[in-house]
Amino acid sequence: MTALAKGRNVFGWPLTLDPKEVGRARELVHKALAGYQLEPTLLDDTVLAVSELVTNAIRHGTPPIELAVHVLYDRVRICVADASPRQLVPGQPGSHDERGRGLAIVKAVTDGRWWVTTRHPGKEVWAELPRPATKLPRWLVAGVPGQASGGHNPPAPIYT
Ligand SMILES: Nc1ncnc2c1ncn2[C@@H]1O[C@H](COP(=O)(O)OP(=O)(O)OP(=O)(O)O)[C@@H](O)[C@H]1O
Ligand SMILES: [Mg+2]
User: Fold this and answer.
1) Number of alpha carbons in the 13 Å side-chain half-sphere of residue 79
2) What is the pLDDT of residue 121?
3) Which DSSP category does 131 fall into?
4) Domains and CATH numbers, the chain
5) Which of 61, 56, 65, 54 has the alpha carbon at shortest distance from 26?
6) What mean pLDDT comes out for the span 125-153?
7) Cβ of 54 less than 6 Å from ligand 1
8) Is the C-beta atom of 89 inside 6 A of ligand 1?
9) With the CA atoms of 62, 3, 6 and 112 taken in that order, what torsion angle do they form, in degrees rounded to the nearest 10?
10) Which residue's CA is minimally distant from atom 9 of ligand 1?
């Protein structure tokens, strides 16, 4: 299962159906991302998207529910999986509609970069938020001091 994959810059948690899990998910993600010095808006938007997708999985999906967050060089990727085969139904909420806003919010904060993949049983809902390119230290781009490459042949950076 992708969502529970753990590794470098990947965080995963199983969640229960308790509505309090939404708050816990927000806290877990906030804590996990605290060390990455993400822009505050990116951190807030990531937590917001997590909140909407986890709420949906609890309210409309079927357990087991799993959440994963992957911090990449140029983006933060979220995955929320649940075991229901029911498909998502993105709406176009009007200003007076109280429901149907969750996926519209996810669409807005991800610039439309969210999608669904099938798993058996159920599905994985993915969302990606762009991250401004991490500034690499000058010495890494220019080569190791004393063995300068003259900037013509910099070592390939490791992005994740
Ligand atoms: N994980 C899911 N499993 C099954 N159906 C889902 C799931 N997520 C969303 N849906 C379906 O997609 C619809 C739209 O989701 P969306 O989050 O936009 O609105 P909502 O959850 O109905 O309301 P709101 O998020 O504003 O409280 C839901 O009403 C539901 O029918
Ligand atoms: Mg919703």
Assistant:
1) 23
2) 94
3) -
4) 2-134 (3.30.565.10)
5) 54
6) 67
7) no
8) yes
9) -140
10) 88
